[in-house]
């Protein structure tokens, strides 16, 4: 359930940042491409803490 909430918030915040960024740079706003980038970024952020904690525990055991 936590991962679903993270994906929803990533979509919302990604669209918000994309809309503001496109307005500032005078570029066209693309919902689809921003959604893909937001989901990819959210997936990376979901797995990053697990990868970091595994590496830290392996170094402390040696």
Mean pLDDT: 85
What's the order of the H and E elements? HH
Q: Total number of β-strand segments?
A: 0
Strand content: under 5%
| Structural class determined from secondary elements | mainly alpha
> What does the radius of gyration come to?
16 Å
- Please work out how many helical segments DSSP would assign: 2
Quick synopsis:
By secondary structure, the chain is mainly alpha-helical.
Q: What are its keywords?
A:
about 60 residues; about 0% strand
Report what the structure shows.
- With 62 residues, the protein is mainly α.
- The chain has helices at residues 2-25, 31-61.
- α1 (2-25) crosses α2.
- It is elongated, with a radius of gyration of 16 Å.
């Amino acid at each position: 359930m936590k991962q679903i909430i993270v994906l929803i918030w990533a979509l919302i915040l990604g669209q918000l940042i994309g809309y503001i960024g496109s307005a500032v740079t005078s570029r066209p706003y693309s919902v689809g491409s921003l959604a893909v980038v937001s989901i990819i970024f959210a997936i990376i952020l979901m797995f990053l803490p697990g990868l970091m904690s595994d590496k830290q525990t392996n170094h402390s055991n040696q």
